[in-house]
């Protein structure tokens, strides 16, 4: 019985003679704690680096996709949102608003399809038209979600 208690105490890091931690077990616990801390820090570094890489790739994709026509259209839309839109009453029937919709459409589809989608949205934006959530999507694409 004493042997079983001694084995259990020894495996738990206690010295059998005085129920005190031995230097070896203390140093081993410090090493394992240090390894755990390093592993956590490495995981955090890897996660932050992957997040930064994703952001850089997104920025590069935005720069690659945005041609001169898209940049011109986006700058006109930014001017409209900054200077003209505050002077008009809030009466948008859709989410996102028509200006945000057209910005997303230009970024996603380019100049030609973005212009077509923006014109189609402006035709629908009237008192007899619909309302609600309407993200930009090309005509043959499925809606982002379907209500059941």
Automatic annotation (TrEMBL):
Residues 44-65 are annotated as: Disordered. InterPro entries: Membr_insert_effic_factor_YidD (IPR002696). Pfam families: YidD (PF01809). SMART domains: Haemolytic. HAMAP family: UPF0161_YidD. NCBIfam families: membrane protein insertion efficiency factor YidD (TIGR00278). This is Membrane protein insertion efficiency factor. It comes from Populus trichocarpa (Western balsam poplar).
């Amino acid at each position: 019985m004493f042997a079983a208690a001694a084995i259990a105490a020894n495996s738990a890091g206690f010295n059998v003679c005085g129920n005190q931690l031995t230097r070896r077990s203390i140093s081993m616990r410090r090493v394992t704690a240090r390894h755990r801390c390093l592993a956590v820090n490495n995981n955090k570094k890897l996660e932050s680096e992957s997040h930064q890489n994703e952001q850089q790739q997104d920025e590069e994709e935005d720069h690659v996709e945005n041609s001169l026509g898209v940049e011109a259209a986006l700058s006109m839309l930014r001017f409209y949102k900054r200077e003209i839109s505050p002077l008009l009453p809030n009466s948008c029937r859709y989410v996102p608003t028509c200006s945000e919709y057209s910005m997303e459409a230009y970024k996603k589809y380019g100049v030609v399809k973005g212009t077509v989608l923006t014109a189609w949205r402006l035709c629908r934006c009237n008192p007899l038209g619909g309302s609600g959530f309407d993200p930009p999507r090309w005509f043959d694409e499925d809606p982002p979600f379907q209500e059941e």
